[in-house]
Predict the structure.
Amino acid sequence: GHSGAAQFWYWDQMNKPGMYGEYKRSIGILKSLGDPMTFQRQKIAVNSPKGATLKLVPGRGWEKSDVMTFDLPADAELVGQLSGFFQGTGHREMQPNPVSIKFTAETPGEASVHVAEFAAGGSKAQIFLDGKEVFTKEWKGQGNKAESIRIPYAAGPHVLRIENNGPDWFRVRSIDIPGIMPVSSAVLASNGDKAVIRINSAVGDGNTAACTITYAKWKDGVYDTKILDMSGDREFNTTTTIKSGAMKIDNLSSDVLVVLTRRAR
């Protein structure tokens, strides 16, 4: 048996985003939907201009990495199969290959590799951009502080490669690449009668975004629409007209939940 429920290794970081407020709002939303178990996530297309930062957060802890090569932004969802522990020669079987990230930048920018921890046994990071080494550093012993490594790049296609050629691991918290992601992203769940859409947009205070969402199973017509601003705790009702399986929504804040119910004909 087990001594207790499974927990994240870094449990002390779990509520940093302020999730309790969201939990409270979510209860009311779930009650208004009926049985949430009848909803299934659906495949959608989101048309939104680029300009947001892609933040890759490794999804595995002390585990073997199964995916180490990424073609972004298409492969972003595969980061759940990458361990944050970038292994050195001592456990090369847990990470057989360097982490390689392919992306295309429309404008010059600066990638960031945020390193959170280092093994006392020593590690050595080497970072290459388009085959040229742009950063190298060794960490030995204890007492090393978290470090953010900045990698400037020009507009155009690039390959960023991160290697650990020391004896032990260093842990990467995230890898950030600005400007290569759509400003808005969304997920949709439906039970046939209603659709629930969570839309996140990379906009600052006072700014808004717009996007078009296409869902093949939507029927043309007018839908009663409830919009909840999850970032500002505001709610209002309106109507949405869907044509050719697509809806356009504007005035989006950073985090919005949309509930659509098709009107009876």
